[in-house]
Amino acid sequence: MKKRDLKLVVIGDSGVGKSSFVSALINQISNKASVLDKHPPINLPSDILNHPECITTIIDTKCAPHQLPQEIQIADVILLMYAIDDDGSSERLKRFWLKELREQGYKQPVLIVGNKLDLLGLEEDRDYHRIFKVIKQLVKDFNSVEMGIECSSIKQQGIYDVINCAQRSYLYPLAPIYSIADKSLTEGFKKALTRIFRICDRDGDGVWSDIELEKFQKKVFKRQLDYSDIAGIKDMIEEELLDNSNKKVITLEGFIALQKRGIELMKIQICWTILRFFRYKDDLTLDESIFTNELIFDQDAGQTVELSDIALSKLKQMFEIRCNFNSQKTNTINQKQFDDIFYPVMCKTNFPHLNQYYPQEQDIITLNQWLAMWNAFSFFNYKEAYKLLCYIGIEIKLSDTFKEQNRKDSWSSVQKNIDRKVFHIAIVTRKKHGQLEKQFSNLPLIITTIQNKTYAISLYDELEAEQQIEKRRLSIIDFLLIDQNCQFETAQLIPISTYNDQEPFWAQINNINGTLHQIPFGYSDYQIQQLKKQNSLPIIEVAGVVTLLTLILTGGYFLSKKALLKNK
Predict the structure, then answer these.
(1) Neighbours of 560 (CB within 10 A)
(2) Mind listing the domains of the chain with CATH numbers?
(3) CA 536 centroid distance within chain
(4) Residue 490 CB contacts under 8 Å (≥ 6 apart), including other chains
(5) Which residue among 56, 260, 267, 478 is least crowded, i.e. fewest CB within 10 A of its CB?
């Protein structure tokens, strides 16, 4: 694990022993007595603690009785201290401190530290005070409270345990993955486990075989499982689920149950080892560095990217897994199964809604619809599409996910675009009216499939067209339909036709499909001539390049020969 900076901020009422606690730490570290009203921040040596990967700084605080100290703003973990011998001090934990932390939006892990343990007498008094009178109810009422621990600053008893528990809470926080009050896994953790399960389901059958379980264990923990290990894991799942559904294979439900049992056995570190291996951060979102790679393509020259055959194949496989769960065994999924695919997603997305596809099916999604929506989504924003693919459990490199299409800034490039699968049609009108208003119904985009090609259809008014279509020398629009009542004109080399509100909308779209797949792809003679001019360098430029190359090559020969003669 990488080194991580941990700032521990000690808060609590005056007189509970905050400064005495810090003094006790200093005394144990340096063997020097230090008694101050408030200590400056202290860096703790990593070699005396259980988690040397934590570079730990402890910060003492002092504030007015009804005020949170400012240092909380930089805290990674909060040590909220009370005096075990003072009932008023423990009551203030709930009545002021934890209530105020919640109301002001602080979400750092909180450890309740009972100081002055030396002032209690009988052992049973200690247990009663900690478990029943203080900690149990606070854990139930406040999600940020992870645990309680007791110490004695005067006797220097248990102070290292407090720091080690705080380090553990920082490295392996409980709140993001488990609710102590509800005794259940958080929704975010279940989303993450669903993605991880899908990634490790190599054959895509929706369950883990023993071989897949072994590969998961070896991949994450670098440890081989034997037969008894696998049997033990399955027995643990059976105890948690109270059935034997995971005797032959491990289901997603079984995998989630296994993690819950692990947490309840205080094996939180195992859960975080799994999460961090699959690039999850403490808030259970994926590490953004996964998405930093960029494709190099020239969108200004009309070049686009499309999903590769590998990516489409993986999306098809994910769709077919859901089809297998369909009781009617049809090659469709329902809306619930569609939503289930996106369950692991922990980020906002603009993925198309089903009502953006034409023609719509009644409460079902076909494979064509599924792939077409992904094609259209990727066409406009491949980075967001890649992020979404990662979240739903498709493990693939960005460079393998997309393929670049040819530029459209010359006639030769245009002629090579016949293998494209996605096309963008833009309609320009003065305002939505007639069938356009009915067809789009405030949708940002309409998607359809014609002869295995995906068409994304968008609508612009004249002002939007000037702002969005004309902002580039060339754009990613493949065909312009301009309303016959519209004054919009463009100098860009885009195939253009007239939109007629009196003709059926989809008949016009079908006509464009025919035009785009025939030479000259809808371009006018003038546009073709302009594209051909960009096909090659002017004659003078070409001659200049040839002359320069000749001089370089022959110059190199003569210089070499001259040097040889000189050496002789």
Answers:
(1) 9
(2) 4-171 (3.40.50.300), 184-285 (1.10.238.10), 290-404 (1.10.238.10), 411-533 (no CATH)
(3) 44
(4) 465, 469, 470, 480, 496
(5) 267
Tokens of 543: 């001659």
The DSSP letter of residue 444 is S
- The DSSP symbol for 276 reads H
pLDDT bucket at 12, cuts 50 / 70 / 90: very high
Each residue of 543-559: b (16+ CB within 10 Å) or e?
A: eeeeeeeeeeeeeeeee
CA distance 68 to 191: 35
Confidence of residue 550 (pLDDT cuts 50, 70, 90): very low
By residue count, the chain amounts to 568
519: pLDDT strictly greater than 80: no
Please state the φ and ψ torsions of residue 17, each to the nearest 5 degrees.
Answer: 105, 30
Given a cut of 90, is residue 496 above it in pLDDT? yes
- Taking CA atoms, 18 is separated from 10, 43, 130, 142, in Å, by 6, 16, 18, 22
| Secondary structure in 3-state letters for 135-191 | HHHHHHHCCCEEEEEECECCCCECHHHHHHHHHHHHHCCCCCCEECCCCEECHHHHH
- Report cis status (omega within 30 of 0) of the bond before 359: yes
Q: Taking a C-beta distance cutoff of 8 angstroms, is the pair 347, 391 a contact?
A: yes
> Residue 405 to residues 408, 417, 476, 535: CA-CA distances in angstroms?
9, 7, 11, 17
Q: Is the pLDDT of residue 321 over 80?
A: yes
Per-residue pLDDT, averaged over 455-482, amounts to 84
Instruction: Please enumerate in sequence order all residues whose Cβ is within 8 A of that of 204, keeping only pairs 6 or more positions apart, or say none.
Output: 317, 318, 320, 321
Evaluated on CA atoms 27, 32, 38, 41, the torsion sign reads negative
249 pLDDT exceeds 80? yes
Q: How far apart are CA 270 and CA 215, in angstroms?
A: 16
In this predicted model, what pLDDT tens digit does every residue of 29-68 receive, in sequence order? 876 666 666 788 999 988 778 888 899 999 999 988 889 9
Distance CA 24, CA 39 (A): 12
